[in-house]
Specification:
Structural class: alpha+beta
Mean pLDDT: 88
Number of helices: 16
Radius of gyration: 26 Å
Strand content: 5-15%
Helix content: 40-55%
Low-confidence stretches: 1-14, 22-34
Length: 509
């Protein structure tokens, strides 16, 4: 068997028995020197562990947030009216993790295999029924408590670079997300056409670490984002101290949210919404400026809201002029332009894009596009657990960035997770649960940090480097419907070739 050349971790050749599948060998280890297989099962388990460092890293982080005692405590605090019988909450979470990590979002694969090995005592229908009824409070509690544990082991070197004047603050980006791609399996939905939404989320992301901190949820995917914001703010304030800078899109720019976001000494940067009136302060003239790309911007001071409205607030508005694109205007309560330059405020708003990246990752990478359940409660719980998995991979990516002394955003989460999945599948095919428990023993946060650094050292491969695409996507071309409803690739290529030749001739003349 010839394996593709990769970065070596050690020079060892294994003599495999004929009945051992070649798929189970990790591709990171080149086979150069002959050596016998370990004699005892314990030795084999340790050897497998040493050859699957990504799997061990992720399993150690998952152990922090899916430990039985931890999950039992989360269930007791946030369960509401739900209860445990044959299916405990730890078992429930472990099976959902298997579905998302190893079976491409297939709940049936995970649940059926658990029935075979005896870890699931109830029927598949019971498991799906439990998923359908999981309380929203339990979904929110799982993300809140697990993110707090992962913050303890996040590497300082992988923190997001912040604008200089805001470096002492905790930047919190927040946004809403509808859960889409719901299958029409429920009787009430089978005849429904058009887009079908599950639950609705408001999620807060700590920009300093890129970890999703908290969320609030509603079973109705059509509700507005703003009613869910107070609960997210309350959760974040209970876990993140210091000065918080809240960063939100224009949907949250009204006369109510600034008052909420300014409590407890916090500040805000919001995309300006033209539906909110702005009245310039005649006593303070506008000031022009230029950003790092040479684009012009203007700073203005004034009030949002009319003089008769008790919610009226004095703000600074910064408008960035972008030729060929929509101008970007933000408002903030950071009024001192010397302490907080306009360029830093604009750069801070751009960091809001981290939460959009998070939503894209949990949808496309962590299988939120393939929903296991179809009730609003089931979709919200899967979204919450996808956010937990996103956080785990962010921590793992942080240690790789620290080991390679590179920026974490230069590492592709998608490519990294692909290798994580392969190694986890290999791990669980070779080792059973007791062997895994004995190898991935409980550690203190300091021990976990040290072990993750050891595993990340020398692990880098260029496959994980994020490719740099175009800065601006090409404009969408109008669609053409062919005569008869069909055509061939050959004819389209010929048509394009003729059009290109005609354009070349017209330009030359």
């Amino acid at each position: 068997m010839v394996l593709p050349p990769t970065k070596p971790r050690r020079d060892v050749r294994l003599e495999l028995p004929a009945n051992v599948p070649a798929l189970l060998l990790p591709v990171q280890v080149p086979l150069e020197v002959a050596a016998p297989l370990p004699d005892s099962p314990a030795s084999l388990a340790r050897e497998v562990c040493s050859r699957l460092p990504l799997a061990e890293s992720v399993l150690r982080l998952l152990a922090l947030v899916t430990d039985d005692a931890f999950l039992a405590n989360v269930f007791e605090r946030y369960r509401g009216k739900s209860y445990e019988n044959l299916i405990s909450f730890p078992t429930f979470v472990h099976l959902l993790a298997d579905a998302l990590l190893e079976h491409d979002g297939s709940g049936r694969q995970s649940f059926s295999r658990a029935r075979e090995d005896g870890s699931l005592k109830a029927s598949l229908a019971a498991m799906y029924g439990k998923l359908a009824r999981v309380p929203l409070s339990l979904s929110m509690g799982l993300l809140l408590e697990s993110s707090a544990r992962l913050q303890d082991v996040f590497p300082r070197a992988a923190h997001t670079p912040l604008p200089a004047s805001l470096a002492s603050m905790n930047l919190i980006a927040f946004d809403g997300k509808k859960i889409k791609h719901v299958a029409r399996r429920l009787k009430a939905t089978r005849r429904q056409l058009g887009q079908l939404y599950g639950g609705k989320l408001d999620v807060a992301l700590w920009v300093n670490t890129r970890l999703a901190l908290a969320m609030s949820a509603d079973p109705d995917g059509e509700v507005s984002d703003t009613p869910l914001l107070p609960e997210v703010v309350r959760q974040v304030r209970s876990r993140i101290g210091g000065i918080r800078l809240w960063i939100g899109d224009r949907l949250f720019c009204d006369l109510d949210q600034p008052g909420l976001l300014c409590q407890e000494g916090d500040h805000f940067v919001l995309r300006y919404n033209k539906r909110v009136s702005f009245h310039a302060d005649p006593q303070r003239p506008a000031q022009p400026g230029t950003d790092s790309q040479g684009r012009k911007y203007v700073q203005e001071w004034g009030w949002i809201g009319t003089a008769k409205d008790s919610r009226r607030r004095y703000v600074r508005r910064i408008t960035l002029y972008r030729p060929g694109e929509e101008d970007r205007s933000v408002i903030t309560d950071l009024l001192d332009d010397e302490a907080y330059p306009g360029t830093d405020i604009l750069d801070a708003y751009l960091l809001r894009w981290e939460i959009e990246n998070c939503f894209q990752q949990i949808t496309d990478v962590f299988e939120l596009r393939r929903l296991i359940g179809n009730t609003p409660e089931a979709t919200v719980f899967q979204a919450a657990f996808c956010l937990v998995l996103y956080n785990v991979v962010m921590v793992c990516r942080g240690y790789l960035a620290e080991a390679e002394k590179m920026a974490a955003e230069d590492i592709s989460t998608e490519q990294l997770f692909y290798d994580v999945q392969r190694q986890l599948i290999a791990w669980h095919e070779v080792l059973d649960v007791p062997e895994t428990v004995s190898l991935v023993q409980s550690m203190s946060p300091e021990q976990t940090r040290q072990r993750l650094r050891e595993l990340a050292s020398g692990l880098w491969t260029e496959r994980w480097r994020k490719t740099s695409g175009a800065q601006k996507p090409p404009p969408k071309l109008p669609k053409e419907y062919p005569s008869g409803g069909h055509t061939s690739v050959f004819r389209l290529l010929q048509k394009a070739k003729i059009a290109q030749q005609s354009k070349r001739l017209s330009n030359s003349s």
